[in-house]
Amino acid sequence: MRTTLLLAAVFVTMSSFLPDGITITSSAFRHNLPIPTKYSCEGENINPPLDISGIPEGTQSVALIMHDPDAPMKGGFTHWVMWNIKPNAHISEKYNGAEMGMNSARKIGYIGMCPPTGTHHYHFTVYALDTKLSLTAQTDKAGLEEAMKGHILAESTLTGLYKKTK
C-alpha cells in the first residue's frame, strides 16, 4: 500500500512537468505582457498574429476562444470564437481562414479589446480536436465549448494584457 502511494505521488509530480505539446504564441506580444493598441478598439481593431505549434498526433482541427474574464458582466466578455482551423496554422492579422462564431457583442468574428476601466487579461485559448466541427455562425463560446466536449486532445492559453490609453 505504501509503495503504491509513493509511486502515485511520483507519477503525479512528474506528470506536472510533462508538456502537453501544444503551444500558442504571438509575434505581437508575450505571455502576461501588454497587447499593442493596434489590436484594440483604439487601434485598427484587428486580431493579433498567432502561431500554434506542437499539435498532437490525431488532431483533425483546432479551435480558438479569446476571452476577457475581467469584463464587468457575468461570465466575462468573449472577443473571438473560431473553429476548424487547420493544424499548425499561422493565424495572421485580419485572419479569415476558419469558421467564426458570435462574440459577446453578438457579431461574427473578432472584436478588439476595449476595457471600460483598468487592465484586463485576455486569454487566447487553443484546443486541438480529434474532429472537425459542424457548427453555424451563430455559435457562441458556450456552444463551441459544448461541441468540443469529448474531442479535446490538448489545449494551451496565451494571456495578454490591455488597458485603454485614452
CATH first level? Alpha Beta
Distance between the termini: 63 Å
Q: Summarize model confidence as the mean pLDDT.
A: 90
Number of helices: 2
What is the CATH T-level topology?
A: Phosphatidylethanolamine-binding Protein
As a whole number of angstroms, the C-alpha radius of gyration is: 17 Å
Task: Describe what this molecule looks like in 3D.
The structure is a single chain. The chain has 166 residues and is an alpha+beta fold. It has one domain (20-162): Phosphatidylethanolamine-binding Protein (Alpha-Beta Complex), CATH 3.90.280. Helix content is 13%, strand content 31%. The protein has helices at residues 2-15, 141-148, and strands at residues 23-25, 33-34, 50-53, 61-68, 77-85, 90-91, 99-100, 120-129, 152-162. The strands form two sheets. Strands 2-9-8-4-5-7 form a six-stranded mixed beta sheet, covered by helices on one side. The model is unreliable at 2-19 (pLDDT under 50).
Could you name the key traits of this structure?
single chain; 166 residues; alpha+beta; Phosphatidylethanolamine-binding Protein; six-stranded mixed beta sheet; three-stranded antiparallel beta sheet; globular; disordered N terminus
In brief:
13% of the residues lie in helices and 31% in strands. The termini are far apart. It has helices at residues 2-15, 141-148, and strands at residues 23-25, 33-34, 50-53, 61-68, 77-85, 90-91, 99-100, 120-129, 152-162.
SSE order and pairing:
Layout (H helix, E strand, L loop, with lengths): L1 H14 L7 E3 L7 E2 L15 E4 L7 E8 L8 E9 L4 E2 L7 E2 L19 E10 L11 H8 L3 E11 L4
